[in-house]
Specification:
heterodimer; A: about 140 residues; mainly beta; six-stranded mixed beta sheet; 1 helix; B: about 400 residues; alpha+beta; Peroxisomal Thiolase, Chain A, domain 1; ten-stranded mixed beta sheet; two-stranded antiparallel ribbon; globular
Chain lengths: ~140, ~400
C-alpha cells in the first residue's frame, strides 16, 4: 500500500536494530531467548532478565488500539494536507507487553476508539539511501 | 554535611513572546543571574557554582568569565531531557551546597528562540535530517508522531478513557493558570483572561488537546541562588529552605508499554519525595505544577497523591485551583501557560515568593511549597521548599 502520510514523508533510517521491523514484510517484535519476554523498541539487552540473547519474533499481526491521538495541527509543512490523522498505540495479541506506534487505515480518524481491533498492513516504499525495499508496518481497522 | 540548603536569591528577566527578546540568550542568562545575586545581597563574582538542565547552551566557563568569577568550584547539569529535570537541577545544587563543595550555586534556565530557533519544533534542531529519522525516532517519526504534545496526548487520552474524565477537567487546569496570572504583572497572559467558552472554541492541536491545553513558547531567563541555611539566614531576604527534592524513574518507563501508557512518570517521584521529606500532599500549602500540557498535569496531580485518578476531575473542578484561597492554591503566578514558559524555572521562583510572602497571588501562612517538574518524561523531579528549617 501507499504511505499514509505520503510517499515523500520521512523514512526510518535503517540500522541493525530496526532492519527486520522495516524490511521483513512481517510484524516483528524483539523477544528474549532466555525469558521469552517481548520488548519494543529493540534494545541491546533484555529489560526483564538482562540477557543479551535476543531474537525477532514474527507476529501474526493482530492487535488492539490502546490509545489514539488525532493530529489536527500539522507541525511540518508536508503534513498540512494530511491532517487530521490518527496516531495510535497498538498492543499485539501474540506479543504481550509491547506497544507499537502507527496510523490506522479504513476508518475516519475521529471514529477510532480505544479497544478497536486492528491488523497489520504494510506501506511499501523504495529507500533510495539504503537501496532496500521498506515494508513499514501500519494498521487496518477490523470491522 | 551541612544541615540544610536554602534559596537566598531569585531573579528573572522580562518575559517575552517567542522570538521577541531584544537580548541574546546569553545576555538573558546573565541578566537573570545578576538579578538573583542582587536579590541575595551578594556580588556576581561571589557565585561559585552553576547547575542547569534541558540541554542548556550557556556554559559555565563562558558564564564565569562574563561575571568575573575567580573561583568557579562546581558545575553540573542534569542528563539530557527537558523540563522534567527542573527540580532535579535544584537537587544537584542542594547536594553540592550541603556537601560544602560550593557556597553560592546558581541554578538557571535561559532561552531565546529568535536567536536559536524553536525549542519545541519537531524536527527543528533535533533534526529530520535528509528525510530520515534514526534511533528511537525511527519507530515514531514515519507515523507522524513528532512532538511532545502528540506523545503526551496518547497518554492523556488513555488516562481520560480509563477514569471517565471529561474535557472540562483539562479546561479547569488551563482556566486556573490564566485566572491566577491576572494579578501578576510579569505574566504574558496578564490582561487576557480565559473563559470556558474561549477554551472550547479554540482549535484542536492534537485531540484531546486544544490550543489552550498546550504551553506557549517564550523567551527569557530565570535563576535562583542556593546556599547553606546558615548563610541564608544572614542574607537580606527570608530564606526558602530546601526541605527535600527527588527525581524518579521506573523500570518500564523508557519504552511505551501497555501498563505504563497512562502515566506522567510521577509515581516514583512521589514515593521518593514524600519518603525523603516525611511529608504528604496535604502538608503542601501551595503547589506549582509544570504544565507542558494540561492533561499531563492531571495525571501528575494524581500520581503525586493529591487525588486518586477517578476523583481527579472533581478535585480540580469548581474553581478548586483558582486564587490564593483555593482548595489547593495552584500555579499562583500563572505557570507555564499564562506567566511564561521558561521551562518551569519561573515556577521555582514563584515557590520562593510564596515562602517569602511576596507572590501576587499570595497564600496565607505558607509553611511548605511544592514545585513539580515536567510530566510525561522521565526522570521526573519535584522539590519542597519550607519556611522553616
Amino acid at each position: 500500500m501507499k504511505r499514509v502520510l505520503g510517499d515523500n514523508w520521512v523514512l526510518p533510517a535503517l540500522d541493525d536494530d530496526n532492519r527486520a521491523f522495516f524490511t521483513s514484510g512481517k510484524l516483528v517484535v524483539q523477544q528474549c531467548s532466555q525469558c521469552e519476554k517481548f520488548q519494543h523498541a529493540p534494545e541491546d539487552i533484555c529489560q526483564s532478565c538482562q540477557s543479551f540473547e535476543l531474537h525477532n519474533f514474527e507476529s501474526q499481526g493482530q492487535g488492539k488500539v490502546e490509545s489514539v491521538a488525532v493530529v489536527d495541527h500539522a507541525i511540518h509543512p508536508s503534513l498540512k494536507d494530511k491532517v487530521p490523522y490518527a496516531i495510535v498505540a497498538v498492543s499485539v495479541d501474540d506479543a504481550p507487553g509491547v506497544l507499537i506506534v502507527g496510523n490506522v487505515i479504513g476508518k475516519a480518524p475521529d471514529d477510532i476508539r480505544i479497544g478497536d481491533n486492528v491488523s497489520v498492513v504494510f506501506e511499501e516504499v523504495d529507500d533510495e539511501r539504503s537501496g532496500e525495499r521498506l515494508t513499514i508496518p501500519q494498521w487496518q481497522a477490523v470491522q | 554535611m551541612n544541615d540544610k540548603a536554602a534559596i537566598c536569591g531569585i531573579g528573572e528577566t522580562v518575559y517575552y513572546n517567542r522570538g521577541d527578546s531584544p537580548h541574546t540568550e546569553f545576555q538573558l542568562a546573565c541578566m537573570a543571574i545578576t538579578a538573583a545575586a542582587d536579590d541575595a545581597g551578594i556580588a556576581p563574582d561571589e557565585i561559585d557554582g552553576f547547575v542547569t538542565y534541558s540541554d542548556n547552551r550557556n556554559g559555565p566557563t563562558r558564564l564565569s568569565a562574563a561575571l568575573g568569577i575567580q573561583n568557579l568550584r562546581f558545575a553540573a547539569t542534569t542528563w539530557p531531557g527537558g523540563g522534567n529535570s527542573v527540580a532535579g537541577a535544584m537537587q544537584i545544587a542542594e547536594s553540592a551546597v550541603r556537601a560544602g563543595y560550593a557556597n553560592n550555586i546558581v541554578v538557571f534556565r535561559a532561552i531565546a528562540q529568535g536567536q536559536f530557533g524553536r525549542f519545541g519544533q519537531a524536527g527543528g534542531s533535533s533534526g529530520m535530517g535528509g528525510g530520515y529519522m534514526a534511533g528511537g525516532a525511527a519507530f515514531s517519526g514515519p507515523y507522524g508522531l513528532l512532538s511532545p504534545a502528540q506523545r503526551c496526548a496518547l497518554r492523556t487520552a488513555r488516562f481520560m478513557h480509563d477514569h471517565d474524565i471529561s474535557q472540562e477537567a483539562l479546561c479547569d487546569i488551563a482556566m486556573a493558570c490564566y485566572a491566577n496570572a491576572q494579578s501578576n504583572p510579569r505574566a504574558l497572559k496578564s490582561g487576557k483572561p480565559l473563559t470556558r467558552e474561549q477554551y472550547h472554541a479554540s482549535r484542536w492541536i492534537v485531540k484531546p488537546y486544544h490550543l489552550y491545553d498546550c504551553c506557549p513558547e517564550n523567551d527569557g531567563a530565570a535563576a535562583s541562588i542556593i546556599t547553606t541555611a546558615e548563610r541564608a539566614r544572614d542574607r537580606k531576604n527570608k530564606p526558602a529552605y530546601i526541605t527535600g527534592a527527588a527525581q524518579g524513574d521506573g523500570a518500564s518507563y523508557s519504552t511505551l508499554t501497555p501498563d505504563d501508557l497512562a502515566t506522567s512518570f510521577y509515581t516514583p517521584v512521589a514515593e521518593n519525595l514524600w519518603g525523603y521529606t516525611g511529608l504528604e500532599p496535604k502538608d503542601m500549602d501551595v503547589v506549582q505544577f509544570y504544565e507542558n500540557f494540561t492533561g499531563a498535569v492531571l495525571i501528575a496531580l494524581s500520581e503525586m497523591g493529591f487525588a486518586p485518578p477517578e476523583g481527579i476531575e472533581e478535585f480540580v473542578s469548581g474553581g478548586a485551583l483558582v486564587g490564593p484561597e483555593a482548595k489547593l492554591p495552584f500555579n499562583t503566578s500563572g505557570g507555564n501557560l499564562a506567566e511564561a514558559y521558561i521551562h518551569g524555572f519561573q515556577l521555582i521562583n514563584e515557590s520562593v515568593r510564596q515562602i517569602r510572602g511576596t507572590s501576587t497571588c499570595q497564600v496565607r501562612n505558607v509553611e511548605h511549597a511544592l514545585t513539580v517538574g515536567g510530566p510525561g518524561y522521565a526522570p521526573g523531579s519535584a522539590i519542597v521548599l519550607g519556611a522553616s528549617q
